[in-house]
Design brief:
The structure is a homodimer of 415-residue chains. With 415 residues, the first copy, chain A, is of the alpha/beta class. Chain A has 2 domains: 218 residues, Aldehyde Dehydrogenase, Chain A, domain 1 (3-Layer(aba) Sandwich); 144 residues, Aldehyde Dehydrogenase, Chain A, domain 2 (3-Layer(aba) Sandwich). Helices cover 42% and strands 21% of the residues of chain A. In chain A, strands 10-9-11-8-7-12-13 form a 7-stranded parallel sheet, sandwiched between helices. A 4-stranded parallel sheet of chain A has the order 5-4-3-6, sandwiched between helices. In chain A, strand 14 and strand 15 form a beta hairpin. In chain A, helix 2 packs across helix 7 and helix 3 packs antiparallel against helix 7. The longest helix of chain A is centred in the N-terminal third of the chain and has 17 residues. Chain A is globular, with a radius of gyration of 24 Å. Chain A starts with a helix and ends with a strand. Strand 16 of chain A pairs parallel with strand 13 of chain B, so a sheet runs across the interface.
Amino acid sequence: MTSVRELAQGARAGARVLGTLDRGRKDAALRAIADSLRASAEEIYRANRADLERGRAAGLSEAMLDRLSLTPSVLDSTARGVEDVARLPDPVGGRRDMRRLANGLLVGRQRVPLGVVAMVYESRPNVTVDATALCLKAGNAVLLRGGKEAASSNQALGRVIQRALGDTDVPPACVQIVPATDRDGVRELLSLDDLIDVAIPRGGEGLIRFVAENARVPVVKHYQGVCHLFLDAGCDHARAVAITLNAKVQRPGVCNALECLLVHEQAAESLLPVVAQALREAGVELRGCPRTVQLVPEARPAEDSDYGHEFLSKVLAIRVVRDLDQALEHVARYGSNHTEAICTESYERAERWLREVDASCVVVNASTRFNDGGQLGLGAEIGISTSKLHAYGPMGLEELTAEKWVVLGQGQVRE
Amino acid sequence: MTSVRELAQGARAGARVLGTLDRGRKDAALRAIADSLRASAEEIYRANRADLERGRAAGLSEAMLDRLSLTPSVLDSTARGVEDVARLPDPVGGRRDMRRLANGLLVGRQRVPLGVVAMVYESRPNVTVDATALCLKAGNAVLLRGGKEAASSNQALGRVIQRALGDTDVPPACVQIVPATDRDGVRELLSLDDLIDVAIPRGGEGLIRFVAENARVPVVKHYQGVCHLFLDAGCDHARAVAITLNAKVQRPGVCNALECLLVHEQAAESLLPVVAQALREAGVELRGCPRTVQLVPEARPAEDSDYGHEFLSKVLAIRVVRDLDQALEHVARYGSNHTEAICTESYERAERWLREVDASCVVVNASTRFNDGGQLGLGAEIGISTSKLHAYGPMGLEELTAEKWVVLGQGQVRE
């Protein structure tokens, strides 16, 4: 069997060719992948059925089986996603900020691929295709290490993709399925710092911590989304209710959903009961500070562990705060640098929020749910970063590239 | 004694205050540091003499003692360096690419400090001050872990800096000297991923590998500079000689100096003897491929280990190559992604070099020595990165920051 190192060497060699291809050749390869996914649907379903049967026998939950399942509609939307990426502009090759220096040198930056990306993810097999499309478009080779439960599906998708690339200018070695063995295999992959430029883990916190702790290669990651919304004194009540409701219940299980509501004490008496009623009608369980419980008797008293907690369900922590400063302190202490929103009519407090909150996305008068590559206009995203190195927030095509310096001279030497 | 974790907690708390200060307050703090360095010169010299005496007793080389020494001229240029940083524009707070989306949201990016930077470096105590100035200006707190040889000097510089900050709006806790104990202390520092945003090692390859292998925090680094220059067929001979000479001998001991010369076989017969003579007159030892030795009998035959080697001295490897493709292959195999130059009159080959070479700085018709923050117009640099994550090339103030997303709404929620 090919070793992980050999797969990575293949990817590295492929990346050297891919990195210099023009947009037209990369887009043609993406369209070939989309066509091939559709033409090979039966082969893919067969492999997926094998995973589903094994999963059922192993007692996977219905939710897990649902994530694992490649239905015709999932496969079609996955193929269309690849075509959408082909339509996005090429992030690579442009130069910017070219300045002429006193000595006549023209210097600036040129955007280049990262090289080789290692994706480490869990059960959803469509990530295999989504990540491939974004990496190839950005000129990167990709090593795909999905979950054991999806092993057959991922192998089949990999075969289909490599076959499709065989008729294009993109070397098939640019897309490598790393066999899903045990965690030692992941550890080996993450140790290849001479061959891999970045690892991007996607999945539960356990997987991400494992990657962060074992990687010798750089990792771009986020652990969790403990998102807050601060309802300021004097904010518009109708907006406050609509934003709170949307942020909490539109899709409670995702990382940009609301987990904790902060309410200015001057707004609490009139606003909090209204907000709480809307939330309760939407089936949300409320856990509040003593002042919250006074104003909303149906709320359960919050434990300290309810603050800073990522519920990912219809549970919301609530706290009445003295002022903006206390709200900022709460967010600094309990937030996870993901998405933090304020609802306010005050110019000064909006600007202070925007400036002082340290989060990948800081929002005024809108739902936390907008922190998403598609919603922010990136076209697509490969993940989200809550650490500030390299990327902070949704990672689109540009975040899968770097910039090198270029120096154009006429014989200049240094004094 | 205060633990490393406590020092980092202090830095983190300081960073929260520093991160929101306006330029005027940060610059005033930098000027206070410069003044205080001058006013406290005697205290600094005394501590430095103690280090020098200990170093002499321990048998440090003259070169090491020289790097360790804080003379009046070094101290003055260090203080002036701090004032220079105060004059640079503030990298923090600006917004860019603010676009209005179909739903009326105005979204874009706002530049923010990284937070807490950990510098790990070797003997030069002036790095303590240079890194402090750049980190503070970019709104970051800094943990300074210098070498054991400079322990007294660094402690004295830290005292002087913290004293100066006492009269400013920058919390003195933003600058922390981490005691130089053993490598376990460095390992502990590098494990604090809840408190430190990035580690920047500066020094020999051994130190940098130690940091890269032991860090749980992100690391921005470069191992070595194995820089090439390719003399193309038809290039200008006078330029070729001048650039080769400058790149190799102007300062052979630094990372952007030339280590290997590649010569197109069509240019070799007429050009290589001329270049070789100029190099020999400058005292450079030549190690060449068989064709080189035919044309330049004084050159020693090169071993394979001479290619990809960072000599950091007046030794140069030379290889005659068939064409641009072979030059590109050589650079991809033996280069270190640092600085790669071509001397050419061909538009097509210049553009291919710029596009296909993967290095932090790619140069046409100029010396490799220009890959330097000061030379490229960054004002100052804190290090150089040869990995593509976060920064690629010299790291100035902007590379000590990140960008968060800002979303300005009027009550928008997600459908």
